[in-house]
Amino acid sequence: MSARHAARLWAAQRLTAAVLAVCVAVHLVTIIYAVRGGLSAGEILGRTRGSYGWGAFYATFVLAAAVHGAIGLRTIAHEWLGIEGDLLELGMTVAGVALTILGLRAVFAVVGA
Amino acid sequence: MSDLEVRVWRGGADGRFETFRVARRASQTVLDVVTHIQRHLDTTLSYRFACRVGMCGSCAMTVNGAPRWTCRTHVDKVAADGRLEIGPLGNFPIVKDLVADMREFFDKWAAARGQFKGGATRGEPFARVEPTSVARREADAGIECIGCGVCYSACDVVKWNRDYLGPAALNRAWTLVNDARDVGQAERLAAVAGDAGCHSCHTMMSCTVHCPKQLSPTRSIAGLKRATFKLALLAEDGA
Questions:
Q1: A10 contacts in B (CB within 8 Å)?
Q2: pTM for the full predicted model
Q3: Is B21 helix (H, G, I), strand (E, B) or coil?
Q4: Of these four, A14, A16, B23, B111, which has the most CB atoms within 10 Å of its CB?
């Protein structure tokens, strides 16, 4: 792996960590707020459906988690499974793309009409 | 004073602990115990030491599970119950008994471009380095390393990833990154980046906790991460 690639992955993981810190805090506060007096699908969808704000927030959350998680999985695959080289980079990319698709699909499901 | 029960590693990687009884004395160090065993109980015991006063860094061993300088470790501090277990430094190949093979450790210093590379000639004036400058202070913070290998032995990333350069080599590289006279920075930063370098550090700080000189290789490694990132922003090629 080139020094440049390593430094970029490091920076991407730190930057997405900063984004996730805010996103997780907002998400947790929302959960606590939402479960007052019971939790129902109707109540959640009532808040999220058609909301560009929540859609943008959770899309950002998903993208940050996908980048952050994929780089973290790359480290685990390298240290614990001994995977190296192109396979390591491919695995990271596949994990990142899969997390993005799955996450955005969920965002569309709760935001779409 | 009661006797100490001392378990000492004998043989190579497939060796075993052998138990000795050593008289406990006031102000006794772990190195005193090992020396007593070698001189009076079993002359075939191999171990390494030189200065006996914490300057050379050659007597580091694993004492009751932790890497330490044996010359600066008082028995009272680590063997309250009268038991000592002394082995060679972990994460190093064993030569014999308490002697670790340091070759890989120092080869990694070289791989991390731990050598000073000057660009000036004899005809040029001395470089002026302001003692209070940030770079000089960063270099000062790590420069007292004497290469004892305690941090390398304490590091879990070294255990998991045999290619990892380790805290001491990266700390050395960081002191040179902050040396205004050195002209080998691009090669050095390329050498210390990546899965074998600073980006593999998990910031668990075992090196910093165990360093007998109270240095912080973790801090140095964090500095290398920042420096390699700056280089990556500036670099046009794939270095």
A1: 199, 225, 228-229
A2: 0.88
A3: strand
A4: A16
